[in-house]
Fold:
Amino acid sequence: MKRLTAWVVCLMLLHAAALAEEPVKNGSKQETPDRSADVAVSLWPEEMGPSFQGGRPECFKLWVIRSLRFPADRYDVGDEAKVGVAFTIDRNGRLTGLKVTECEERHFADRLSREIALSPMWSPGRKKGKPVKTELEMRFVFRLVAPPAGQEELGLCAEDCDTYTSADRRPSFCGGGPDEFRGWVQRQVDSLMGPGALTEPRKLILRFVVEKDGRMTPAPEPKYRDEDALEKAVRGVLTAAPAWTPATIAGERVRFGASIPVAFGPGAAGAEYNDRDAYQVVEIMPKFFGGGLDKFRSWVMAEVKYPLDMLKLGVQGRVVAAFVVDKEGRITMAEILKSPHPQFSEEVMHALERAPRWTPGSQDGEVVRVKYTLPVDFKIRPGLRFSTGAPGRSRGSSRSY
Structure:
């Protein structure tokens, strides 16, 4: 009797399993799962960019610049260079197809190219868990400096001078973030101009660079623009600001560009900062299913399609979009800043409109809005022949750093 009961139970379990698999076998359309974090991995192909020595591609830039040496009899301390390059990381992690895309002085580009060619292996990019070939673009901005004592025979060294907007550790001000800095600026301006000097509320966007030593370098204002009393006071305050704790990438200090809105005048202490005045630097940046802007860009690149008309005409180029991740994690205020053609713009905008929600960012324990700028490259691989099908975006993709 017990054996018969066991057989009945087994048959019931097999029947239940068969019913669970039946819609798949019959090709029935399954219900689309809710786009939440716990099911996100199954909603689109996993796509990860290549990494260098376990870090972001920017780590490669810093590694190359640290490795550069220039003979002191041909170069001078203080010489600066800007060199753009493009290359491919193949499925095995090898760097191939190196070419110079931007060059002010050819001798700098030649030495940089030789150093890049000697670089170690990368960890290749992956799609659906399999290694894939990835095209990258990078810009190197560096200045020649004196070598450490005892290494003079090796020649002059190079120092990274590029300005970053993302980093492993973002800059902090007096132990806090943008709110701490904002409050300090408001207090200093009130002290300088006197309380009640402003009868109307004002809001300014303060743009500056946090240097490697923590000093602030305010962004230059257009020469044709006259500053009023408030703007002059703010500029004077910024030049006397305490040092920040600088940003770092792979433990190395880097220059970091910031843009922070600050309110002045009546109601400044309790001012609300709307989407147009969203943060660009916060303590905890928004997360896109555990990642940041790079992961979201990978998602966008997998979603957009290369417009068929543009492929026929051989049109390619970069679309630059801007958007804000609001306090609910939704993408708002999306706009196209630059595009080679409206069809490219439409593809990117459609992807932004249907994007899943982010985990919003926070500052001083409060959820805040954060603004991003997103570049999306549409490139046709050399030798790719046109076909009647609409090719996916990933066939001509590349990334820039």
User: Anything to note?
Assistant: Residues 291 and 358 are 10 Å apart (CA to CA). The longest strand covers residues 252-264.
